[in-house]
């Protein structure tokens, strides 16, 4: 780096002056020393001394190592600056490495999260397909249920109509039976019945009719295990 080059030039110049040699002023080290005399922060006195030395050349004889002392001070300053810059650079490198490691972990974590979310996305997509299939099956089942309900309503209406017709028929039958029983119990009917017989006595006729009724009651009672309102009505009429 430039600092190392400057330090090397100052070290070379100091070593040469300590040996009493000034020929280095004609080399690149001498040119670098002139540049540093202008660029570095120096006291006015030190800068004047160096400028006089550099201008005097080989005829200038430094006294009591004054020039070498200034050069060593300049070298110490530059070495301290270089050490500080190196420490700062190393700290920056360490910070960068730590930040890079943290970012690497973050990238790995984000990658794992992306992978997990991608897997979850696939699972959700599969669940959506399954739910759509279930929805389609449910919709079809709903159509079938609605059709069944419509058929059930229709069948219920038909059964209701059949029951009404059967009830009317039964009512007509009961009415006819009631009329028949009333007719059989009527005195005129009994008189007509007696006239059709071969002229038995009235007592014999009444006995015959009573016996027929009694026989009919016995037959109906024997069959009473089957619940039928018509049979109950007939038994009530025959019982008088």
Structural account:
With 240 residues, this protein is an all-alpha fold. 84% of the residues lie in helices and 0% in strands. It has 7 helices and no strands. The longest helix is centred in the middle third of the chain and has 120 residues.
In short:
With 240 residues, the chain is mostly helical. It has helices at 2-18, 28-39, 44-56, 66-185, 187-195, 202-222, 229-238. The model has no long low-confidence stretch (mean pLDDT 77).
Secondary structure blueprint with pairings:
Layout: H1 2-18, H2 28-39, H3 44-56, H4 66-185, H5 187-195, H6 202-222, H7 229-238
Helix pairs in contact: 1-2, 1-4, 2-3, 4-7, 6-7
Report the sheet-strand fraction. Answer: under 5%
The SSE order reads HHHHHHH
Largest sheet: none
CA-atom Rg in angstroms? 68 Å
Compute the number of helices. Answer: 7
Mean pLDDT: 77
The separation of the N and C termini measures: 143 Å
Low-confidence stretches: none
- The beta-strand count equals 0
Tell me roughly what share of residues is in helical segments.
over 70%
Q: Which geometry do the CA atoms define?
A: rod-shaped
The structural class is: mainly alpha
């Amino acid at each position: 780096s430039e600092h190392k080059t400057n330090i090397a030039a100052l070290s070379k110049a100091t070593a040469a002056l300590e040996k009493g040699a000034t020929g280095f002023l004609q080399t690149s080290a001498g040119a670098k020393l002139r540049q540093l005399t202008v660029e570095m922060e120096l006291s006015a006195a030190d800068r004047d001394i160096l400028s006089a030395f550099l201008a005097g050349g080989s005829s200038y004889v430094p006294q009591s190592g004054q020039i070498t002392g200034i050069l060593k001070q300049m070298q110490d300053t530059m070495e301290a600056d270089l050490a500080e810059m190196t420490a700062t650079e190393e700290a920056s490198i360490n910070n960068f490495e730590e930040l890079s490691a943290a970012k690497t972990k973050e990238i790995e974590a984000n990658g794992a999260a992306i992978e997990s979310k991608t897997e979850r996305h696939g699972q959700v997509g599969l669940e959506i397909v399954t739910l759509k299939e279930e929805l389609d099956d449910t919709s079809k089942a709903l159509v079938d249920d609605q059709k069944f309900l419509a058929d059930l309503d229709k069948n219920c209406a038909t059964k209701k109509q059949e029951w009404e017709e059967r009830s009317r028929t039964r009512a007509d039958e009961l009415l006819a039976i009631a009329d028949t029983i009333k007719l059989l119990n009527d005195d005129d009917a009994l008189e007509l019945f007696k006239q059709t017989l071969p002229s038995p006595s009235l007592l014999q006729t009444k006995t015959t009719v009573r016996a027929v009724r009694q026989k009919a009651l016995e037959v109906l009672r024997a069959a009473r295990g089957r619940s039928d309102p018509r049979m109950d009505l007939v038994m009530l009429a025959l019982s008088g």
